[in-house]
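Below is how a single chain appears once it has passed through the pipeline. First comes the sequence as given, then the structure the pipeline wrote out for it. We keep one example in the README because the format questions we get most often are answered faster by looking than by reading.
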Amino acid sequence: MAFGEGDLKKQKHEREKIRAYEQRVREVEHGSFTPLVTSASGGCGNAASVCYKRLASMLAEKWDQPYIELDDVQALIRSYQIRRHSKHPWGTLGRRPCPAP
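Resulting structure:
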């Protein structure tokens, strides 16, 4: 299988994120780490693609649906990340925003 330049860049970024975070996640947080590398044009790395497919399968089962589109899963993740990192009250999911230092 031939990889395009974008695919090689995504693989490189996946390896860099794994190198930077995996050891700490395993040792300190006792968890696992999957780098969700995406491009501005909507493509994603191999690990992210597998993660999105697994999440879509789990959500489809939970919501009793035959399938869920990967685009919908990616949109759910992006909306969660935006709300989680927002400084606006509507983005805090019912929590009070942290006071400014």
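Confidence is low (pLDDT under 50) at residues 90-96.

See the next section for the split statistics.
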